[in-house]
Amino acid sequence: MRIFARSDIGPPPDVQSRPAIYAGNHRSLADLLLASIAFHSWGLPIRPLVASSYFRKPVIGPLLGRLRCIPVGGSEALELATAEIQAGWSVAIMPEGRVVPVEDWKADGVGQLRSGVGRLALETGLPVVATGASGTEAFWPRGATGPRVRPWRRYPLAVRSEVVGVIDAGSPREATEVVRTALVRCVERADTATELMRQSR
Hints:
Layout: E1 5-8, E2 21-24, H1 30-42, E3 46-51, H2 60-66, E4 70-72, H3 76-86, E5 90-93, H4 102-105, H5 116-124, E6 128-134, H6 136-139, E7 155-165, H7 172-199
Parallel strand pairs: 1-7, 2-5, 2-6, 3-4, 3-5
Antiparallel strand pairs: 6-7
Helix pairs in contact: 5-7
């Protein structure tokens, strides 16, 4: 991936306790690849939860197992996440629940989140880290079977994170909105980083 893209990962999140819940936006299948680079760079033991249908896709499917991703489907996602947490792993989820079309995230960078991330945060009492990615939508557009490979062009990719911490909210939906607000800030910073990278080419 480094041959075809330039990655600006940003500093590691200062999470005081382990494990934690990492919540990221989802513009592209390349988000999974960029997340694995970020987690490796940060030296954090994190297992991403990924829809089982992605494991059957060409290109990305064979990579997911090697990246220690966990296939999930429907209502079992929270149970599997909780089991991994109890085993000592941090988990990463993309609470938009799908690769989001541009028109659904262009307003503020993030689509509508499903409330599962809020429920998981409240039920486990673990800190949440918002992780925003940018540039992946150009590198691997939604609906494409693989990334755009252009030897003369390295796509700028960026990740920015923010420690939300342990969330105190009255409902999963309220907790989810707390996560979304932080995620919007992270994505805005990541978008700024990729734009600066484009200008510096």
